[in-house]
Amino acid sequence: MLVLFETAAGFAVFKLLDEKKLKEVDNLFEDFETPEAASKVVQLQNFKKFEDSAEALQAGVALNEGKICKPLKKLLKKVFTDEVQEQLMVWDAKLGNTIKEKLGVQCISNNNVNELMRCIKSQVEGLIPGLQEKELSAMSLGLGHNLARYKLKFSPDKVDTMIVQAICLLDDIDKELNNYVMRAREWYGWHFPELGKILTDNQAYIRTVMAMGTREKAVATDFSDFLSEDLEEKVKEAAEVSMGTEVADDDMLNINSLCEQILELTEYRAQLFEYLKNRMAAIAPNLTILVGELVGARLISHAGSLINLAKHPASTIQILGAEKALFRALKTRNSTPKYGLLYHAQLVSQISAKNKGKMSRMLAAKAALACRYDALGEETTTEMGIENHSKLSSRMSMLETGYSRKLSGKAKSQSAFASYHGTSDVRQYHIAADTTMESSTKRKFDDSYGEQKAKRIKVEEVEEAAAPEEPKSEKKKKKKKHQEEAAAEEEPVAEEVTEPVAEEVTEKKKKKKDKKGREKNVVDEEVKDVNLESDAGLTSKKPCLSVGTGFVWDVPDSLADRGQSSESEEEEEDEAKKKKTKKMTKAEREAMAKQEEQRLHELERARLDKDRLPQTAMDYEELLQTSPNSSAVWIQFISYHLESAEVEKAKAVARRALQVINMREEQERLNIWTVILRLEVLYGTAESVQASYREALATNDEQQVHLAMAMVYAENDKIKDASNIYYIMTKKFGQVLDVWVKAGIFFFRNKKFDEARKYMDRALIALDKKHHVELINRFGQLEFRFGEAERGRTMFESLLSNYPKRIDIWSVYVDLLTKNGDIEGARTVLERMTGLKLKIRKMRGIFKKFLDFEKTHGTPQRVQAVKKQVEDFVAAAISKE
Q1: CB neighbours of 694 closer than 8 A, spacing ≥ 6?
Q2: Mean pLDDT over residues 658-676, rounded?
């Protein structure tokens, strides 16, 4: 058996002299204690030395990858020429499989072989003649450095490992910060729960807690360095009426320590992000311009290095980070994901949902080019990234708005989007187009009946004048023949002219006059025939009109009555034209110019009037040019079409509004979606309603869309559908108080009191305990307004027994009793309020409310009694001080 042994100097092949040694390897090291003893176990057969360090590096890389390099291949072919039946022991099983496939040599690799290799390594200098220990150590060190440098796979100037570590650390810091802030809010919330609702910004919350300490110090603390005046005032007011528990000094000390850790982590995160930003600008500037620092760093981290990312095709870069979704889609045969980490890029996140796939595909293609340019380019500049980013931005604007921002081009590129833009075209009705008779040739119709006859006669003149010319087709010959026969029946044809050229002019003039006379006679006779037939009351045959050219136009019955009115209209138009053709005097011209100037002045003043309501579609188009993101204007435009019963146009305007309104205007877009849902519920089908509903959910906040859909159903008395929507909302958004309150309002208004009370019981289970007081308060108000007042009174009494210092609940209770007509009950509650032991400022508000109540609903004696109570309270307070 042969043994393949790799060293930093070259490859060596040893022959195992005693194969029994391989079966018992526990004490094999004893046979390799000295070089003489080792030579009795193995014997050197062949040794292939590396020529230089480059060949050694190439061999080392090939061995790491389980491949056969050229020196090793030559050595094995030389060794196994004669002894084909020998087996070869190797260290790496993967290398053994490759040797077996390439050279057909049987290889062995197991634990016993590995132990033999270790023993050979311990005495390799003695087994290979001419190999010095110092030389071997130097070769090993140089080969190790070369292999380490090769494994890095990038130049020292572009150390993207730093980017991978930085982005991983940044993500870890973000997770820790979220955990710390959540813990601080929950911890301090036991002492001051109202502060969490007032301050939603984490930094402001932490700084406020550190500056204030306990809530009793809020009045004397200055928050102007990090809070606005309004927030500062709200914090101080909430601190005075807070319902939180008291905390000890030790508790506050630990909370402050946690807040300090949060601030330190936040500052370090800012420094780390700045470091990452600079690194990305130096290593991958074009990729940074396209996708941003964070997304670019995550792509590099996911691929392992910038070189690996550059090797990926654009289709792989597009779905990096969505591997689980991809394999799940392939397994279930569903649609594959369209984006992964690129979803968080600015260009993809800003575009609408239906175009996100297109934009991610285009961005992935440009990002692949940018990676290769950054990784492999000799002189990296940012021109490529800036140019591609501008192209993608223009493409995004064209996808969103439908208009290209190119300086040149044809109008064909905008034709596809013309259906989304309303145009105000004024079209006139053509009376002459009412004929239903097919004609043998194509002809154009004019606006009046009389003008058709004149135009037809003029055509005949031209055709007859062109009679001497040779016809170009068979149709023209037949036409000319029919014309000559019709003229011959009325009057003999003029004699042929054979005189000299000097006399032809006079002959043509005579012929012209004769033709005009014949045409006039033909028309007069035809008109007489028509009048005679109509007077005789002939109904067996429809009246026909012949113009002397062989054409016959059948006149429909509906035109019989219209003929008289059209003739009178023609006469009026002729008189108006005659008046216009008359010369006007200077005074008339000045008066007309003054009227025109006055009319234009009124139009300009109406245009400049901001309070003027739009009257036409063009007015709305002009108004939308100035306010394209205003949902109110779009809704007015939609209402304008609905007033004219143009439902499809109203839907088209609503869809166009979604195309025009900026993606950042979420509330404006939500208003338009609400209108679309209302239109579909009113005029659409169940399928169209569900399709629009799903589309709205995909492009907006789901909670807001659910609320809007429930409101639309409730407006149209579709109580069952609205109930289903509220049931879905409470399942999906069970931690949101407003959802339960809206559901309660809906059921109370529709007199489904049992359902509303069931929802309240469910809400008490689903919501956090800090929301229970507000929930009972709101449902108690609903009981007073729509349900049973006694049940509402019970709910408020239970609240006040648990939270007697909540002045807001006392005030709401008094107002509800007053509106319900229970004046004595309200007076009793106010008297109970005056007995509370609160601060002077709060008691002053209570007495003021009691005094106003008695002035409105009481007697002068009761007013005096309340004033007496106030005096006694003030005197008692002064005596205590």
Answers
A1: none
A2: 88
